[in-house]
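Entry for the shared binder. Reason: the reviewer on the internal report wants the predicted structure included alongside the sequence.
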Amino acid sequence: MRIRQVLGSVRLKAALSLGMVLGLGSVGTLAAWSTTASTTSGTFVSGTVDIKFDDGTTNGNQGLAGSPYIVALPTGTLLPGQSKAAAVKVKNGGTLGFTYTGVLSVATPGLSLTSVVTAGAPTVNASSNTCSGTGGVLNSARTVVAGAVDTICVQITLPTASLSTDQGVSGSVNLVLTATAVNG
């Protein structure tokens, strides 16, 4: 019986030893290395697009639909063939550069005025004042950097061949500008 006890004891020891090796091996694989990192961005602010008419005040004039900005064309009557012109200063009151386009229209039904917009200030002479340069400035986008002012010239002309129905008619023009932010 002693052999049986010795064999049983050896088997028991072998089984226990095997359990110890397997047990320690699995315990060793339970540990894992780990780490975390985090970051927070700095403060940021979105940019602004703010097109205004520069009327000499600090902030300029928005010219909203309810209270439009009035462009001061020279006063007085127009005779056939004469023109009146005025500088319009377009101000970028935002923090981003923008491009702008516009539409100029005569807002007087039945009056045969023609209108043009050019770059720069008007040229004044004895009989009328006109915009120098070629028209069509508002047909392509004009760029204005943040805080800058772009000067355009608005001119209306009563054609030489005006009809007699144009006599004594008052008129006005509307200028609508639309700005779009420039990336960068």
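Summary line for the report: The chain has a mean pLDDT of 76.
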